[in-house]
Amino acid sequence: MRAVAFDLFGGELDLRELPDPSPSPHGAVIRVEATGLCRSDWHGWQGHDPAVRVLPHVPGHELAGVVEAVGSGVRGWLPGARVTVPFVCACGSCAACAAGEQQVCERQTQPGFTHWGSYAEFVAVDHADVNLIPVPEEMSYFTAASLGCRFATAFRAVAQVGEVRPGEWVAVHGCGGVGLSAVMIASAAGARVVAVDISTDALRLAEQAGATHFVDGSAGDAGAQVRELTRGGAHVSIDALGSPRTCAASVESLRRRGRHVQVGLLPDDVTPIPMSRVIGQELRLLGSHGMAAHAYPPMLEMIRAGLLHPEELVTRTIGLADAGKALASIGSVPGVTMITPGAPL
């Protein structure tokens, strides 16, 4: 198969021929029709994610495609099915899975991290009966692929972890793919959304996604700007980027007893949180890590009903030949970039 791979952390990302994957007994192989360019893949390439240990490595973790083959133990799927997957693939049998919390599975696997990912023509997925999600015929592969990481992650961060309610103020720090998704979902939930970014193009996309107030993150204290706009601070603030600056600004954006949701990845040795503010104002610090496959139906129903439009966030499509360069320069193009592995060179 053709795939984008790297041999050194931070090294060259090149297109090469690699062996096709085979399904595990309870797994499946997916022919990738679309896969998203995500900052989490950049972190993996840079060596920030401890799950990426063996090189060479193929990035890519949000995908949609067609079942190519299934293992002997798979009961619910046959080749030819249109599917997507959550980026956290659960085992289905640990204590967390038994509690319905597959997004924090104790034995989780993640394409593009624990094994080769979807910047390739084919990708292997473990425990197919637990993790595969049917893609409606009317939904494009681009839309389906955009759900697996950023949109589903944003949906759970806003609706389930952040518990956003109508009329509340929500600040979203970083208007890339996850941030724009969070803006759209929070707006659909009836919240008043403040978008924070250093890019005017990104803020323009945030306005199209439903934001009504805007903060230029390069123009000083973003937290103070949000507090002024919201007359006291946001009820919920989401760090969708993952940097010391955006994490601290998100916490600083909150009103008393507000909820900070961390979605963007941060290096483990970074501790930017103003803890005196957290204690003194009884702020809640919450992590959000994807969304389990069984939790997709409410999100899919909102898309079907026309309340959410994830396809509107896709601003660029490229082939595998351009994927390495695009990953190395991620953030330079606003919106969501989709890769089509089957496109000709």
In short:
This protein is an alpha/beta fold and 345 residues long. Helices cover 28% and strands 23% of the residues. It has 2 domains: 2-149 and 291-340, Medium-chain alcohol dehydrogenases, catalytic domain (Quinone Oxidoreductase, Chain A, domain 1), CATH 3.90.180; 163-287, Rossmann fold (3-Layer(aba) Sandwich).
Task: Name the descriptors.
alpha/beta; Quinone Oxidoreductase, Chain A, domain 1; Rossmann fold; seven-stranded mixed sheet; six-stranded parallel sheet; 11 helices; globular
Q: Can you tell me about this structure?
A:
Helices cover 28% and strands 23% of the residues. By secondary structure, the chain is an alpha/beta fold. The chain has 2 domains: 198 residues, Quinone Oxidoreductase, Chain A, domain 1 (Alpha-Beta Complex); 125 residues, NAD(P)-binding Rossmann-like Domain (Rossmann fold, 3-Layer(aba) Sandwich). The strands form 3 sheets. Strands 3, 4, 5, 6, 7, 14 and 15 form a 7-stranded mixed sheet that branches. Strands 10-9-8-11-12-13 form a 6-stranded parallel sheet, sandwiched between helices. Strands 1-2 form a two-stranded antiparallel ribbon. Helix 5 runs parallel beside helix 6. The protein starts with a strand and ends in a 5-residue tail after the last strand. The mean pLDDT is 94. GO terms for molecular function: oxidoreductase activity; zinc ion binding. This is Alcohol dehydrogenase. Pfam families: ADH_N (PF08240), ADH_zinc_N (PF00107). Its cofactor is Zn(2+).
